[in-house]
Amino acid sequence: MKNSTGNMSELPDISILKCMQCGICSGSCPSGRFMELNIRTLIKKSASGRPVLDEDELWMCTTCYSCQERCPRQIKIVDWLLSVRSKAVHEGNIKPEHKQVIKNLLDTGHAVPINQENIEKRERLGLSSLPSTVVKDDGALKDVKNLLKSCGFDTIINEDQI
Amino acid sequence: MRKIALFFGCLIPNRYPGIEMATNLCLATLDIDFAELESASCCPAPGVFRSFDEMTWLTIAARNLALAEKMDRDILTVCNGCFGSLNEASSRLDNSNRKNKELRLQVNKHLEKIGLEYNGTVKVRHIIEFLSQEFGSDKISELVTHPLKVNVAVHYGCHMVKPTEKIKGDSAENPVFFDLLVEATGANSISYPDKNQCCGAGGGVRAGLHDRSIQMVEHKLKMIRSKEIDCIVDACPFCHMQFDSGQYEINNTQNQNYKIPVLHYTQLLALSLGYGPEDVGIDQNVIKNNELE
Ligand code: SF4
Ligand code: SF4
């Protein structure tokens, strides 16, 4: 497909308008074997201008990149999908489990923070009780929190809802 | 070889610290000049945070890159997720074109608020790619003092080899470089159906659609169990958790009896270099690794 000026190279890399619906992506998709995700039809839907932000399918992709590697039109399918997810999230379409992961990052600088069980595992191994990350450095944690604030990340979730 | 800033991320220090210990021991034994990247945060996890807000993801990643830049070291990751995230971020913020420099300018506006700046000079390595490139399987096997006689199901994990646009491995469809490193320890890498398929943990699926994610790893486990295999060897703590605690969950919910030991490559290598299972936390998995203890 050519765009209005007839110049392929002017299309953005992630343009799904180049999709020819060959189905190589969905045929390569491991999530599609176990879930309702059909990445080919999702792309079709979006390319034809229909809304996809509420689709649960968006969240079934493990970002394995099999589709993107094999797409004969070299569409950056995962990059596209992640950008759609991001729009969905900014419209408030976010799972409670993912809100918790966000809260973890906002509070601790880690998606998965340390806990007592693992402090003990570390000690048994002869490692320091806490790792040498932000968890041990209040100033660094404050820096990370300031960056998250500067990017407006805290506004994605309404903390009262958790 | 540039000097190394070792980046552990979240899951290794906070859930599988044995991998941290094993990595430290292996790098020291191989006489690699490394220092831990102190005061690092989450990489941040690509599947979730890049999904939520790209600028936030990139800025937090850039802080980690800038810390390594200050140490004048490249980053070495021991996790496919950290590698995927930081490698992608570094490739978008390097000096290769104007678009990257412009993006870096935006990121640096945030970093400026905490007195940091990133200049785009840090390369990001993955432990398997690093050992394979800088040493090679022949050299590793020369260093092995306790060859392991085990049959291994190797799991690469997606973000060690893909996207090939950003990662230059030997092949995304049929890679061999990890198998060669496993065999350097004396082990046999046994082929199994759907070997290169995803474990099901990534992209926020393990957190957001947990049962479906477990179905995906169950398929992998079934394929692995169909062969004569002593253990699974991975190179990512997220795949590791998916295989390890996944077996426990499947056993509890479906009356199954999976008990396949799961090792990170650094743990396997440490054993072959003469360390004991308890030195590197192989006894700390959810699935008890009795046969390897
Ligand atoms: S593989 Fe590419 S061209 Fe084919 S259907 Fe999928 S996105 Fe479209
Ligand atoms: S990246 Fe997502 S959509 Fe593409 S093949 Fe993998 S799971 Fe399917």
Automatic annotation (TrEMBL), chain A:
EC main group: oxidoreductase
One of the Pfam families matching this protein, by short name: Fer4_8
Entry's EC annotation: 1.8.98.1
UniProt entry keywords in alphabetical sequence: 4Fe-4S, Iron, Iron-sulfur, Metal-binding, Methanogenesis, Oxidoreductase
GO BP field: methanogenesis
Pathway(s) per entry: Cofactor metabolism; coenzyme M-coenzyme B heterodisulfide reduction; coenzyme B and coenzyme M from coenzyme M-coenzyme B heterodisulfide: step 1/1
Assigned GO CC terms: plasma membrane
Domain 4Fe-4S ferredoxin-type, first and last residues per copy: 10-40, 49-81
A molecular-function term among this protein's GO annotations: CoB--CoM heterodisulfide reductase activity
Gene3D superfamilies according to UniProt: Alpha-helical ferredoxin
Source species, domain of life: Archaea
Family classification: Belongs to the HdrC family.
The name this protein goes by in its record: CoB--CoM heterodisulfide reductase subunit C
Record organism: Methanosalsum natronophilum
Gene this chain is encoded by: hdrC
TrEMBL record, chain B:
Keywords: 4Fe-4S, Coiled coil, Iron, Iron-sulfur, Metal-binding, Methanogenesis, Oxidoreductase
Recorded metabolic or biological pathway in which this protein acts: Cofactor metabolism; coenzyme M-coenzyme B heterodisulfide reduction; coenzyme B and coenzyme M from coenzyme M-coenzyme B heterodisulfide: step 1/1
GO terms assigned for molecular function: 4 iron, 4 sulfur cluster binding; CoB--CoM heterodisulfide reductase activity; metal ion binding
Record Pfam families: CCG (PF02754)
Matches recorded under InterPro entries: CoB/CoM_hetero-S_Rdtase_bsu, Cys_rich_dom, HdrB/HdrD_reductase
Sections of the chain in a coiled coil: 86-113
Cofactor requirement: [4Fe-4S] cluster
GO BP: any one term: methanogenesis
Cysteine-rich domain residues: 4-86, 152-244
EC number in record: 1.8.98.1
Top-level taxon of origin: Archaea
Gene3D superfamilies assigned: 1.20.1050.140
NCBIfam families given in the database record: CoB_CoM_SS_B
Family: Belongs to the HdrB family.
Protein name: CoB--CoM heterodisulfide reductase subunit B
Organism of derivation: Methanosalsum natronophilum
